[in-house]
Predict the 3D structure of the following.
Amino acid sequence: MPKIFLTSTALAAALAAPAFAVEKTDVLATYIDMGQAKFEDSLSTAKVLQEKVDALVADPSPQALDAARQAWLAARIPYQQSEVYRFGNPIVDDWEGKVNAWPLDEGLIDYVDDGYGGPTDENELAALNVIATPEFTVGGATIDASEITPDFIEGVLHEADGVETNVASGYHAIEFLLWGQDLHGHEAGAGERPWTDYAAGDDCTHGNCDRRGDYLKAAAALLVRDLEFMASQWQEGGEARAALEADVDAGIVAIVTGMGSLSYGEQAGERMRLGLMLNDPEEEHDCFSDNTYNSHFYDGVGIRSAYIGSYTRVDGTKVEGPSLSELVAEADPELDAELRAKLDATVDALLQMKIAGDAGFKYDMMLERGSEAGEALIMGGVNGLVDQTRSIERVVSVLSLDAGEFEGSDSLDDPSAVFQ
């Protein structure tokens, strides 16, 4: 995938590093503490989701299904704000695919509409429906799927046969099991999975309700287990915390890299511009629940949070302290003011998208070809993210950071390649 290169690191290294009144160690400490808080909040909301999932499976009803869906939506809020920690911290990036991988071939997990299709050359398991298949074959080996457990999902099914779209765990697998496929195309409406998909006996719809409940419970338990691991990495003595504290300059680079890569290649490119170019509702991040506009908004909030050194927890308390913004302001006050203004403008653009989505103009409707209002909302976010990345690049030079490169995207760097 093409990359967007930062200002020459050779030139940056040749410049004398400026002296700062704000200590880099204090800036990094704020960043670490916010990371701990974000992953702890992600864990606590995932535990609530697990409780609601368990209640749904134990006593299915329309109310229980709605409660589980609301818990899933709430769990996305702190997690999306943690994504700015992904690209600058290898321990997070290596782990992220277990909890937030997308897109997924949902036919691997459960029943799908006839229009979904069957196995493909790229993925022979694309329509496996493991919930209805207690035994199957991969690469000539027979797989016992009679018991669906967290270990089975993690160790056998997730990315089975080496195919990345065989996403069996994480938020989006759970999302599919709560909402089902969104079959509305560009029209209003999310997935409409009935609560009876978890009912017992003759009330069960689409068959295998007991195994579907087993899968949903196992996936929720696995999400909690994965988030417990990551939350522990940011606590005192945790690997993520220790790695940053061991090299303060590299830690500052991690902050900037996370901001730039999420802003540019991941969010502006892969999650927003690409879907708009293809006018494809399947290219929306939370495609089953129609929650994509919220996920984009909270990603933007998370990027700004990393710069200004302030995070508002799910209980309303704040984690804040010396920030990268203060460090940049000492070296170049105009750049700091510029970047803060751009971050605010991007969050505002994403907020306009969120307001429209909450009012009923959903993200897949925005993606429809010919929707001028939808394109304006999405491109408002894309343009803001790209614009703020240019200022983030300048931070590298101003602070004389020995940084690498930000993630890129064909949709931004080589649009013609998208259609090849």
The beta strands are 4-5, 135-138, 141-144, 310-312, 318-320, 405-406. The mean pLDDT is 93. The two ends are 14 Å apart (CA to CA).
